[in-house]
Design brief:
By secondary structure, the chain is of the alpha+beta class. The chain has three helices and eleven strands; from the N terminus they run βββαββββαββββα. Strand 1 and strand 2 form a beta hairpin. The chain folds into two domains: about 50 residues, 2,3-Dihydroxybiphenyl 1,2-Dioxygenase, domain 1 (Roll); about 90 residues, Roll (2,3-Dihydroxybiphenyl 1,2-Dioxygenase, domain 1). The strands form three sheets. It has a five-stranded mixed sheet with strand order 7-10-9-8-11.
Length: about 180
């Protein structure tokens, strides 16, 4: 194995550059108009470019795109069946708790059903699916000094129910 040594499930060849970020996700969808409507209306992304009726690129804050959706190989297609490989979910990190609360309120206004809502100790997360069955996580990180840690300093992430009423209380006066 060039450049590294495989140890069990761990491949040791040096870490990835810590400045690397996930720049965008590109999803296959069955219906472009339906997907664009969901990502713009329910989640609030803006369309930065349309490629006819085959693809669209969407952004938060003017970036060229955070989400691409296309029907190049999937027009009219069905979501993968349970037990199939593929994308589990894409996660969108919000800058703070109030922003996540506003996202929840927006989902509620659009009658988007949540698959779950969890407090992971390091983050708070909302889970849902887009119209094509792609998993989506909307989350906010807690400050690192609040992350739960064991005596040896290792992370002790948890999965507890997220109190949605308390989250919404963050923006109760924003209406």
């Amino acid at each position: 194995m060039e450049g590294g040594v495989r140890q069990g499930l761990r491949f040791v060849s040096g870490p990835i550059d810590p400045a690397v970020v996930v720049g965008h996700v590109h999803l296959k969808v069955a219906d472009l108009e339906r997907a664009v409507s969901f990502y713009t209306e329910a989640l609030g992304f803006e369309v930065t470019q349309l490629m006819g009726d085959q693809a669209a690129f969407l952004s938060a804050g003017g970036y060229h795109h955070h989400v691409g959706v296309n029907t190049w190989h999937s027009r009219g297609g069905e979501p993968p069946p349970p037990g199939a490989t593929g994308l589990y979910h894409v996660a969108f990190r919000y800058p703070d708790r109030a922003s996540l609360a506003r996202a929840l309120r927006r989902l509620m206004r659009h009658s988007i059903r949540l698959d779950g809502a969890s407090d992971h100790g390091v983050s708070e997360a909302l889970y849902l699916r887009d119209p094509d069955g792609n998993g989506i996580e909307l989350y906010r990180d807690r400050p690192t000094e609040e992350w739960p840690r064991a005596a040896n300093g290792s992370l002790q992430m948890v999965t507890l129910p997220l109190d949605l009423d308390a989250l919404l209380a963050e923006v109760a006066g924003d209406e």
